[in-house]
Amino acid sequence: MGTIVEVHRDHEALREEWDRLADHVNGTPFHRPGWILAWCQSFATGQLRTLVVREDSRMLALLPMIEKHGILRSPTNWHTPIFGPLTDGPASASLIARALIALRRRRVSLSFLDSQDLFLYAIQDGPAATAGPIVHRAMQHSPYIRTSGDRDLYFSGLPGDMRREIRRRRRRLETETGPVRLEILDGTTGLDRLLAQGFALEASGWKAKRGTAIRSSVETLQFYESISRWAADRGMLRLAFLRAGEATIAFDLCLEHNSVHYLVKTGFDPGYRKFAPGTLMREQMINRAFDLDLTTYEFLGNNDSWKQQWTNDVRERLLIQIFAPSAPGLVDWAAYAYARPLAKRVINAVRTRMPS
Length: 356
Description:
Elements: E1 3-8, H1 11-24, H2 33-43, E2 47-55, E3 58-68, E4 71-73, E5 86-87, H3 90-102, E6 107-114, H4 118-125, E7 134-146, H5 151-156, H6 160-177, E8 180-185, H7 191-202, H8 206-210, H9 218-233, E9 237-244, E10 247-257, E11 260-268, H10 277-291, E12 296-298, H11 305-308, E13 314-323, H12 327-353
Parallel strand pairs: 4-6, 11-12
Antiparallel strand pairs: 1-2, 2-3, 3-4, 3-5, 6-13, 7-12, 7-13, 8-9, 9-10, 10-11
Helix pairs in contact: 2-9, 3-4
């Protein structure tokens, strides 16, 4: 039968086989149909098209994309921690890269690709290298901690004043409120109630004011409810609550899979800010990762200052764009290559003239 390429539109029919491939190649939760299909239901503005490469009927690689107006984009936005195809090695990464280029769309845009993804090398050094202009840039640097090593060595490496401050604030909190405890739930019972409690806490601070909280839009709320139910069904969901006396002061929405902890969303009650509840939560959650001998603790998102307190290790996420060697593709490339730097220069010029 040999190697064949398929473009799928019926993704429910593909779901079981998609999950099997993800299991085979140790795909993250964010590469799986449960995550991607929930994202599409909430955010997609085009049609989902999934490329599949098979050899003798066996699935070797899979890549979901959104198609609209002759452009293919990854099903991603700022709610996406990481994206890429599922491949079982360099050969299948090359095959799916060739299949993507063979679709001959005016532009292909893939965001949140891990800089170590084999697919990235296949794109840059393979068929795309001669297909038309390629541009790429860093989008995020996502921090992580290796938690399968020596716990004492890790914590002793943190600044001494930070460790002392954590102990001092915890003592103050316990004195004023009562015992401080961490509760981890998997959502198998009372999920709706737990999500309502957690999402209310996540929206209680600056996120609600800036419109970035989970409850800030119907689409965003729908997405996080959907992925939470899916993750609970798969045994991956972890809902963490930091309790102080009778109060709940911090919340984490997390996933755990293949001995990796992923911090998806977090928030705390600003009424307890003087106790640094986010820092207290993080110290307990990182300790827990060491207790469970998890491989890594993944902060996800960008390298915010509060994350830099805990680690210097980051994973680079990239945007890569491939422009077809056609008139429409070259127009898109020129607009991206020249308009974007011009826009940045204009913005910088305006900022320099603004009063301080």
